[in-house]
Amino acid sequence: MEHPEREHWKSSLGFVLAAAGSAIGLGNIWRFPTLTGQNGGGSFVLMYIAIVLLVGLPLMYVELSMGRAAQRGPVGAFGKLAPHPVWKLLGYLFVLTGIVILSYYGVVAGWTLKYFWIALTEGFSRGGSGPFFESFTSNGTAQISFFLAFLGLTVGIVFFGIKGGIERMSTVLMPVLFVLLILLIVYALTLPTAADGLRFYLVPDVDHVTGKTFVFALGQAFFSLSLGMGAMLTYGSYLSPDSNLVKSGLIVVICDTLIAIMAGLLIFPVLGGAPEKSGPGLVFVVLTDLFATLPAGRFVGALFFLLLTIAALTSTISLMEVAASYLIDERGWSRRKSVLVMGATVLVLGIPSALSLGAVGGLGSLVKIGGNELGFLGLADFLFGNVALTAGGFLLILFTVFAWKRKNFETELYSGSTLAQAPRKVLFFLLAVVAPLCLACILGYMLFTGQTLG
Ligand code: TRP
To answer: Which pTM does this prediction carry?
Structure first.
């Protein structure tokens, strides 16, 4: 389908904020601090930054260049740039991956709405967070309702397109997110637990650094930067040729990393040390319990869950855009119809995830992989949020080096840029040698140990 008038971002700042909005999400606010806590504090942070620059940034450039060159979402981009039609299959896998990630990410995102609401209306009760979390997540009707509400918000924004929907919301929400985060950090640093928390977070503990740390850092970098399934590719496809990809990509990567590090500056001072729980338990139980006891905790809790809601929302809209753009670009459907159909699909797919946290016992524990009991949501995250993204990133690099070819990639990436030759060479070396080696290691690790990185 040829769309002569493809919609483009209004400004490069708008694009950067939307792409940063996609990257910055639940992954930054709770997953990064938790992993840092479990993997040696400051030394994990350093390793993470190195991996983001060595593997994340080159792949970010691949996705943005492919998108801008093709002016299509992943399926169309492979169709247009690839010499062989088999690559198109990878495009379909990307769209599917986006739909599945959205279906379970949306469930957790729904919780942020509920918690924001509780903080506003009644506040949290001391010591009651654990039992509340359990009864909430095992209440099927509540799970589906909040999932539906969050999906409704997402659909409502993507419905209005690139400029009027995604870009407009991102340019409002991202600065709000930043200001909220700063306010919360300032508050956290005044708590008596702050010094212990900061010591734990920032002082490197080399004993905790193992091969596994490296694997975790790599997996986290991928998920956090929204790489490996064509989300950045799709956002790149709404760029016009005069945009500076080198600069924009770098800014997005820096913002995402900065926000993750800042989230640690908020969470650890509140905790005052190592997190005893990880994943949802950390944010929805431990922090909530603390908000119940802290001075002005209810107000701060409301701001915190508002921050999480915003972070999650700008991420779910990017996942939805990948799915919708497939129907728009490849099937020629209208945006409105595409978004509604994909919204309904995601809703149906997400129901088993929503019911897998206690509502329907059988969905709560389906398989055991590498010692972890995985329910429907956990399994979807393992297969799509971990394995598919890593494999996708690996294949994207193979595609660029062997099929699309260095010359085409570099011509696209450096048009509109004045980067010198030496850094260009370094970047290609990272892309063609360092990144694939790292990715092959992490893929092997995940498949052989079944260790989920979530
Ligand atoms: N990066 C987001 C986060 O950190 C999640 C996300 C949005 C994502 N779009 C994605 C992850 C595409 C992988 C692929 O929470």
So the answer is: 0.94
